[in-house]
Every structure is written in structure tokens, then in C-alpha cells.
Recover the amino acids of this structure.
């Protein structure tokens, strides 16, 4: 059975994790638990409370949102994709439904461990902010890439 620590080299391929100092890396990895999901299994439900920070280490997820009563696909995300960062900061629940797009393995750090880390290392808030800002930049780029109407002066 794999352990969370076996994914350390993989996590270091992620620029966000790699730039964390060794103490924060050890804290996250030491608290992480493995979670496995079958294809199409629900991983997160919109409106539920955030229970921690997760990263995809194997597989991918399908992120959906209800629009006019139907599921709209917002994106498919593969390893290493982090989830829970926004909810940790704002305290709100999950915004979207997330399903395993294929067999999926997450490393999950429970909320209690995240809160303990933030109490010991308030600078971790900045690291979460950097993770969120990287996602925002990607979202803005995606909007830019899909725009079809030029803005006229």
C-alpha cells in the first residue's frame, strides 16, 4: 500500500509545493492521507464544508456546476491540481461538484492540520494566496482564449 511520503518527488514537480520551505512541506506531507476514488465517483459536493487541502496525485477530476438544472462542465483537471485553497481562506463551502474522471488518488490534509499549520506558520496564508492567484491567472487566460468578440474603440 502506498504512503503519502512516497509522493514527495512527484509533489516537488509542482512549482507551488517546491517553493514551500522544508518545514511546511513536511507538515503537509506528514498530515496527508491517501484517498482513492473510482471513475465517476463524487469527490466533492457543492455547498459542503471544506474539510482540508487536497492534491491530485493520480488521475483527473471533472468539475461541474448546475446551470438551469443541468450539469455544466467547467473543466477537467489532472495531477498535480490542488483543491480546497479558496475555501480555506474564505471559510465557505465547495463551489462546485467534483467527480473522478478516471480512477483517482488524492493526498488530503485534514482541515484541523491546516489550521494548526496556519497557527504555527501564518506565512502559509501567503503561500495559499499564491496558489489561488496562479489559478486566477489561468482562469483569466482561459477567458481571454475563448473570447471571440474584439472590443471596439
Amino acid at each position: 500500500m502506498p504512503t503519502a511520503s512516497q509522493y514527495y518527488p512527484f509533489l516537488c514537480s509542482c512549482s507551488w509545493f517546491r517553493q514551500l520551505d522544508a518545514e511546511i512541506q513536511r507538515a503537509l506531507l506528514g498530515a496527508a492521507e491517501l484517498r482513492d476514488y473510482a471513475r465517476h465517483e463524487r469527490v466533492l459536493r457543492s455547498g459542503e464544508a471544506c474539510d482540508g487541502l487536497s492534491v491530485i496525485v493520480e488521475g483527473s477530476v471533472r468539475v461541474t456546476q448546475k446551470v438551469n438544472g443541468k450539469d455544466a462542465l467547467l473543466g477537467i483537471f489532472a495531477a498535480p491540481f490542488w483543491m480546497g485553497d479558496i475555501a480555506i481562506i474564505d471559510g465557505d463551502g465547495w463551489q462546485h461538484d467534483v467527480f473522478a474522471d478516471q480512477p483517482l488518488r488524492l493526498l488530503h490534509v485534514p482541515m484541523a492540520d491546516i489550521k494548526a499549520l496556519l497557527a504555527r506558520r501564518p506565512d502559509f496564508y501567503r503561500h495559499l494566496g499564491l496558489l489561488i492567484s496562479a489559478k486566477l491567472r489561468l482562469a483569466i487566460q482561459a477567458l481571454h482564449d475563448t473570447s471571440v468578440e474584439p472590443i471596439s474603440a
User: Anything to note?
Assistant: Residues 140 and 146 are 10 Å apart (CA to CA). The mean pLDDT is 91. The first helix runs from residue 8 to 11.
